[in-house]
Amino acid sequence: MPECLSPSPGRAEEAASRLFVKICGLTHPADAELALELGADALGLNFYLKSPRCLDLVRDASWVRALPPATRKVAVLVNPDRALIDRLLGEGFADAIQLHGDEDEAFCRSLAESGIPFIKALRLRDDTILTAADRFPTAWFLLDSYRPDAYGGTGQPADWELAARFVDRARATHHTLLSGGLSPANVAQAIRQVRPDGVDVASGVEGAAGPRRKDAARLREFFAAIRADYPPIG
C-alpha cells in the first residue's frame, strides 16, 4: 500500500477501526481540522472548476499549506493536464491525485511511470467496469455512482451489488474506496454489503450551509456509525 495512502497509524485509533476514511470536498480549514481530529486518513481537495467545492490555487493556498505535516492530501481532478498535476504536487496542494474523469489507460500509465500515486475513480454503470482493475496501473480505485451528466459529488448512492462484485474481483491486487451517496444513515450497511478497504464521503456530511461547508454533527455521526458497526475486512 503506498505510504501516502495508507491508514494513519496512531491517529484517533478508536475511529473507523482500520477502514480507510477519506473526507472529500473540503473548502474550510475548520472542517479539515475536525475531519482529522475524528480520524480521517486523507482529505480530498477538489480542483475541478465545475465543482461547487472547487478550491482556488491562490485564495486557498495558505490554509491548505498550513495543514499538519502528516496530513494526506488528495487532489480531486477531472480530465486534468499534466501541468496542473505537477503544480499541485510541487506546490504542496496534494500528496496524491484522484482522477475522477475520463482519463484513459495511457494517461494513467504516464503517471505511474513518473511515480505519482493516484486513485482512479470508476463510475458504476454496468458490468464492463469489472475489468478496470486489469487496465489501469494503480493500486487504488474509487467506486462512485453513475450519472451521465456529472462526474461525482451528486449524493446519489452507487450500485452496491456491482461494487461488491468489483471488490471481490480486485481484492487480491487492489485497494478499493466506496463512494457515492454515503451518509451517517447508510455507511455501516454499505460497508457490510460491499466490504471495501475504505470509504469516501462529501455531500453526505454536508448540511444546510451547502456544499462548501461540512456539518460538524453529521461528520461526527459518520465516524460514529463506522465505529459502532464496522465488520473486519477478511
Task: Give a written overview of the molecule.
It is a single chain. This protein is an alpha/beta fold. The protein has one domain: Aldolase class I (TIM Barrel). Helix content is 29%, strand content 17%. The protein has 8 helices and 8 strands, in the order βαβαβαβαβαβαβαβα. The chain has helices at 29-38, 61-65, 82-90, 105-113, 132-135, 160-170, 187-194, 216-228, and strands at 20-24, 42-46, 73-77, 96-99, 118-124, 140-145, 175-178, 198-201. Strands 1-2-3-4-5-6-7-8 form an 8-stranded parallel beta barrel, surrounded by 5 helices. Helix 4 links the parallel strand 4 and strand 5. It is globular and about 40 Å long. The two termini are 17 Å apart. 42% of the residues are buried.
CATH class equals Alpha Beta
Topology order in helix (H) and strand (E) letters? EHEHEHEHEHEHEHEH
Total number of helical segments? 8
CATH architectural name: Alpha-Beta Barrel
Short description:
By secondary structure, the protein is of the alpha/beta class.
Primary descriptors:
29% helix; 8 strands; single chain; globular; alpha/beta; eight-stranded parallel beta barrel; TIM Barrel; 8 helices; 17% strand; 234 residues
Question: What is the fold's blueprint, element by element?
Answer:
Blueprint: E1 20-24, H1 29-38, E2 42-46, H2 61-65, E3 73-77, H3 82-90, E4 96-99, H4 105-113, E5 118-124, H5 132-135, E6 140-145, H6 160-170, E7 175-178, H7 187-194, E8 198-201, H8 216-228
Parallel strand pairs: 1-2, 1-8, 2-3, 3-4, 4-5, 5-6, 6-7, 7-8
